Amino acid sequence: MIELKHLSKSFSGRCILEDISLKIDKGSIVTLFGPTGCGKSTLLEMMAGLQLPTSGEAIVPKRDKAMVFQDYAVFPWMTVLKNVTFTLSIVGVPRDQRKGIALDYLRKVGLSDALNKYPSQLSGGMKQRLALARALAVKPRIIFMDEPFASVDAQTREQLQDLLLDIWSSNPVTIIMVTHDIEEATYLSDKIVLFSASPSSRVTDIIEVNAPRPRRRDAQSFG
C-alpha cells in the first residue's frame, strides 16, 4: 500500500499542493485527474522519489518502482533490445538472464520484429511500447505513469491502454497514472483522484470506478 500523509509542496514560497492525504491499495490502478498546473505530475514525482515534499510524508516502498514518461524516455543510441537489456543490467539482473527477459516483454508489447531498430526508426506508439516493456521487464511492484499515452493518436492510445490492461491482468502491479483524459481515467482505473485548480491544489473527491472488468468502451454503463 502507498500512503500519503498531509503532503504539501511549495516552490519559491508558492504552495502548489496542500495537505494531500491518500491511500492506494496494492495491485490497483489509480489515476490523478485535474486541471493543468494543479500539481498532479509533481505529486507523482514525489511518490516516485524524484522530488521531496515541503511537508508531510509519503510512505512508498523504496525499491521495485518504475516510471513511464510522456515523452518517450528511451535511450536513442541503443537498439530496442539493448534498451531493455541495459535497464535490466542496472537493476542487477544476471547477464545470462537479461536477453531472455527482454525478449519476453518485447514480445508482450508487440516489438519482436523491431529488436535491432533504434528509437529514431520507431513510431510514437512503438516508442511508448518500448518504454512500457522496459518498465515492466524489471518486474516492479509499482509503476508511475505521467500521461504516458498523451502524445500518440487516438487509435494507438486505445491500443496501448488495452495492452497495459492485458499485461496488468496477468500481473496486477500497482499503477498510479496522471491523465487529462476522462475516458482514459474511467476505462483504466479502480479509483480516480480529483484535484482542485492551483494554487494550493487539494484532493476534492475520490471516485470509485465499480464497472466490472474487462470494460467495453461501447457499453452504455461506460458512457
Overview of this structure, please?
With 223 residues, this protein is an alpha/beta fold. 32% of the residues lie in helices and 25% in strands. It has helices spanning 40-48, 80-90, 95-108, 124-137, 154-170, 182-188, and strands at residues 2-11, 14-24, 29-33, 55-59, 65-68, 142-146, 174-178, 191-195, 203-208. The strands form 2 sheets. It has a 6-stranded mixed β-sheet with strand order 5-6-7-3-8-9, sandwiched between helices. Strands 2-1-4 form a 3-stranded antiparallel β-sheet, covered by helices on one side. α2 (80-90) crosses α3 (95-108), α3 packs across α4 (124-137) and α4 (124-137) packs parallel to α5 (154-170). The radius of gyration is 18 Å and the shape is globular.
Gist of the model:
With 223 residues, the chain is α/β, with parallel strands linked by helices.
- Determine the structural class based on helices, strands and strand pairing: alpha/beta
* Biggest sheet layout: 6 strands, mixed
Uncertain stretches: none
Distance between the termini: 30 Å
Which shape, going by the Cα principal axes?
globular
Q: Give the amount of beta strand, in percent.
A: 25-35%
Q: Please provide the ordered H/E string of secondary-structure elements.
A: EEEHEEHHHEHEHEE
> What's the pLDDT, averaged over the residues?
91
